[in-house]
Write a structure and sequence with these properties.
The protein is mainly alpha-helical. It has helices at about 5-25, 35-40, 45-60, 80-100, 105-120, 135-150, 155-175, 180-195, 200-215, and strands at about 30-35, 65, 70. It folds into two domains: about 5-70, Winged helix-like DNA-binding domain superfamily/Winged helix DNA-binding domain (Arc Repressor Mutant, subunit A), CATH 1.10.10; about 80-215, GntR ligand-binding domain-like (Four Helix Bundle (Hemerythrin (Met), subunit A), Up-down Bundle). The protein has a three-stranded antiparallel β-sheet. This is GntR family transcriptional regulator.
């Protein structure tokens, strides 16, 4: 159809706006995402909004409820525990491969990514609770740099999907959890990885991944996602 590219562009715009709004916390956990209201608010058709919502469901940023439409996921959703388990399984193995296979260029990328993360403000100006978009990008780039020394494109694509799916939990945990020394956590990961200490690096990454859903749920011994 001739109007398909235009519809895709509109859907992409609405997707971007809804994704950013959900991550900012404009919608409470469990809040309904009503297609008709969103279509009116964004000045687009119902079909365009539904397409954007289906993409959000695929990214783990929305839930599709039987006979009840769409909603923001709940903080207590089992998906965060399942995602944490998947990340501990996949990313720790990837880090071990990266330490084994990574070359000097990999070391330089890890150092550069950590340098940028350490110097990027974690919160939006004037807010001690809203995680800044720049810090979120730097955070993701550091974790990906740690793992890209594995040289395995399939595993890196898996990381990309899991990271986006967990972004909402990370934002929530950053607002709810007790103060954490993220600088020290990331510095420890960098130092262990570049020292080629696979056992220490793996243990630190597993702990790092586990902490966020513990922050999210308020139960320090509960396994979770970062």
């Amino acid at each position: 159809m001739a109007d398909r590219p235009a519809k895709q562009m509109l859907s992409g715009r609405v997707y971007d706006e809804l994704r950013d709004a959900i991550l900012r916390g404009d919608f409470a956990p469990g809040a309904a995402l009503k297609p008709q209201e969103l279509a009116s608010a964004h000045g687009v058709s119902l079909a365009v909004v539904r397409e954007a919502l289906v993409r959000l469901v695929g990214d783990g940023l929305a839930s599709r409820l039987t006979n009840r439409g769409f909603a923001v996921p709940l903080q207590s959703d089992q998906r965060w525990q399942d995602l944490a388990e998947a990340r501990r399984t996949v990313e720790v193995a990837m880090l071990r491969l990266a330490i084994e296979r990574g070359d000097l260029d990999w070391e330089a990328r890890v150092r550069a990514a950590h340098h940028k993360l350490a110097r990027t403000p974690a919160h939006e100006p004037g807010s001690a609770r809203v995680i800044s978009a720049a810090w979120s990008r730097a955070h993701r780039d550091f974790h990906r740099a740690l793992l890209d020394g594995s040289g395995n494109a399939v595993l890196l694509e898996t990381f990309d999907r899991m990271w986006l799916a967990g972004e909402l939990a990370r934002r929530w945990a950053g607002r709810r959890g007790p103060a954490r020394d993220h600088l020290a956590e990331h510095r420890g990961l960098e130092e262990a990885a570049l020292a080629r200490d696979a056992d220490t690096a793996a243990a630190l990454l597993e702990q790092h991944i586990t902490q966020t859903a513990a922050d999210l749920s308020g139960q320090a011994d509960q396994q979770a996602v970062l």
